[in-house]
Give the backbone structure.
Amino acid sequence: MVDLLKLQNGSDVRGVAAEGVEGEPVTLTPQAVNLIGQAFARWLSGRSGKEVGDLKIGVGHDSRITAEQMKTAFISGLSAAGAAVYDCGLVSTPSMFMTVVFPEFSFDGSVMITASHLPFNRNGLKFFNPDGGLEKSDIKEILTLAKTLTPADSDQKALPCESLAAYTRSLREKIREGVQAEDYSNPLKGLHIVVDAGNGAGGFFVSQVLAPLGADTSGSQFLEPDGMFPNHIPNPENHQAMESIKQAVLNHHADLGIIFDTDVDRMSAVLPDGSEVNRDAIIAMMAAILAKDYPGGTIVTDSVTSDRLTRFLEQELKLTHHRFKRGYKNVINESRRLNAEGVVSPLAIETSGHGALSENYFLDDGAYMAVKLLIAAALAAREGKQIGSFIEKLEKGFEEREYRMKLTGEDFTSYGQNVLTQFEERAKAAGYAVAPNSYEGVRISFDSEQVQGWLLLRLSLHDPLMPLNMEGVRPGDCEQMAEIVRRLLTGFENLEVI
């Protein structure tokens, strides 16, 4: 049996759950999931102070081909431990957290069976308790406990739970309250919204949120759950996925396109002219929507955001941009920390489309972000404007590049840290503008006749890689920066430089 601790992926559990890819043996077996289910119930008992028999735990899943198999095994483990289990069926990850929050459920914990945008053969587990998503240390505790247990079953059946209906009802009411339309029940009447669910779990947004509010949803695509993802990867960062929703918007002359990842905790958008609202642009859009309600607030982002985004946030919106480490939990926890210290931080968001709002439990919820976008679109339409007006002053980038340079040798972490130290020292000695507050890696900005833009060199959290991100303002800027990086990284034999 696989070492359960190797299934940890930060604050989640992930593994290969189905055969079908050469060289990728199954690691997330039903037996392992059963043990993790038992362990989660016991861990939750210890954390909540309740007896296991008094716990209520919800279980949901996305459209993956191994979802039912994983759900059966997990529910079996929870039931064997003695907890009362509720089967929420095909749902989104954010809706599973809401089962802990909504008074009609008041679950002590919940679990979402998902591996986000990963290939069809993968699956995983995301855990929630009343404090939100579990931390990395919590997952380690659960997996360590699971290693001490043996598989067990129970005759107790899970109770059916219509949690998604309650969640979508809350989204509809949020839009109605936000728009305050003359026709209160149909605040999206007159708006043409195209949704691409990528055959994940997000098809509900069309049938249970948009259509009941009067929106025209013709042209929406890939709404049917299919864990083989036959049309494109359900990932807003994927070029093919974004091109697909872009063409749908243009072909159907829609007012807005919305694309979700598999489990709907991420989203991006497309404007009527086909402009993609992803990466820096989705951050800019959400910040612009929130700016009037949180004047002077601090927007926490991951480390690979651009200098032009900083200028937009700080000069146009009069907000503060706080770059932090990559990883959605890192960004969320930093925003939480700032708020606890009295710094108003309404938004923690990554370029990947993971966005969490303080007004929504700091939950990274793609559907809630879409709701904020729709409210803004409806209000703008009332004034004869388009939603794109919110970010019309965001400077356009010319070219973005990402390189993933391999590290060799056994202790790649120490070696990579030394590379970063030497890279920073060499950059400063050469007179380049090194950012003083990089929480991750080394960031350099360029503003000369020869080269304009920025780059970030960092060390991967888990893999023997050094990612290099850059953005140029003009043709040739990225190649100029790549050449500068090559010069600054000479002499490192264990690094495959670009």
Q: What stands out?
A: DSSP finds 13 helices and 21 strands in the chain.
